[in-house]
Amino acid sequence: MKENVIYRPPKHRGVYLDPRTKVLFMFVLATLIFFVNKNLLMNSVLVLIPIVLLLSNHRYRPAFIYGGLFIIAILAKLLHGKLEFPYLLAMFLGLITELIFRFFPVFMFGYYIIKSTKPNEFISAMNLCHVPEAFIIPVSVVFRFIPTLGEESRSIGNAMRMREVRFGTPKFWKNPILILEYRVIPLMMSIAKIGEELSAAALSRGLGGLKKRSCLVELSFGIYDIGMAVITVLLIIWIIVGRM
Question: Range of 151's domain?
Answer without folding.
Answer: 119-216
